[in-house]
Amino acid sequence: MTRTPAIAATALAISVAVGLSGCSLLPGGATELTYEDSPLAAYLNSQGDMTEDEMQAHWAEQQTKVEELVAACMAAEGFEYVPVDQSQNGGIVFSGDEWNPDSREWVEQYGYGAVNFPGRDDRPEPGQEWFDPNQDYVQSLSESEMTAYYETLYGPSPTEEQLDEDGGYQYDWSTAGCYGSAQHEVQGNDPYSSDEHKPLMDALNEFYTNLQNHASLTELNRAWASCMTAAGYSGFTTQYDAQNSVYDDINAYYESMTGEWVENDPKLLAIGEREIELALADLDCREETDYRQASLRIQFDLERAFVDEHKAELEALKASLQRTT
């Protein structure tokens, strides 16, 4: 498994949050904060002048070029390879209106959106999620030929010495086979992984790691947790602990499965019912403590201080990101 820089995931979270948030007015005309107001989002979500649709089209065009280069590379190494339609992996795309976890009506229906969520019924049926046109060819190879095929396609598996304590490893396109070379040719170096921006990435990772432990957020989480305990849900330290507990239950459910997938399994539906009850209590406590607005005010104040300290490095990262889009 390739290790993705933590900050890349953070940037993605900011990008999704921005796409699902919109400015609104509080009573009296005061402006409600949204993730669009994030000082760091202006740097980590740098798409230039592209709209979301243009970004999707740009990504699809790049993926098509990558697949064509992979096919040529594999053919040069003596293997057959049919370009794969990666749009099959696109998943469910939200326009923004479907996802509203701060709406009571939405939470009453979906909870946190873990077991049930908008568009859930639009997913492909199990077994039809993705089709690899190379499957039959690969299955026709001997064991040794199959090993050589995948090493040519993706590069050799990392050695035990290359793995870190979490089982991940540092990605290097030059040792990642035909896919690595094709992606590098089409997309260039990933700014998040480049040596040029490593000091900034390290600083950002440290910033977000320490953010949840900031004294102001700790006090806010304490007030929220006290409210949750009064509502009958004790044991949570931070607001994210409540949502994560649902995903822990879902992961345990899937890990315990021994047979085929069961549609509308009562065990999974029961998790969904508990999820909604917990999410409603969480929503009540967030509203009671003004959690969302208070946490955004704290975060953005800290982000502004970070931007002031790392302004030149962030501008350089923004320029690099815009060159790759």
Short summary of the structure?
By secondary structure, the protein is mainly α.
Descriptive key words:
single chain, 56% helix, mainly alpha
Give the arrangement of secondary structure elements:
Blueprint: H1 6-20, E1 24-25, E2 31-32, H2 41-44, H3 52-76, H4 104-110, H5 135-139, H6 143-154, H7 177-187, H8 198-211, H9 215-230, H10 239-256, H11 266-289, H12 291-309, H13 311-323
Describe the structure in your own words.
There is one protein chain. This protein is mainly α and 325 residues long. Helices cover 56% and strands 1% of the residues. It contains 13 helices and 2 strands. It has helices at 6-20, 41-44, 52-76, 104-110, 135-139, 143-154, 177-187, 198-211, 215-230, 239-256, 266-289, 291-309, 311-323; strands at residues 24-25, 31-32. The chain has a two-stranded antiparallel sheet with strand order 1-2. Helix 4 (104-110) packs antiparallel against helix 11, helix 6 runs parallel beside helix 7 and helix 10 runs antiparallel to helix 11. It is globular and about 65 Å long. The relative contact order is 0.14. Mean pLDDT is 83; it is low at 1-30 and 90-95.
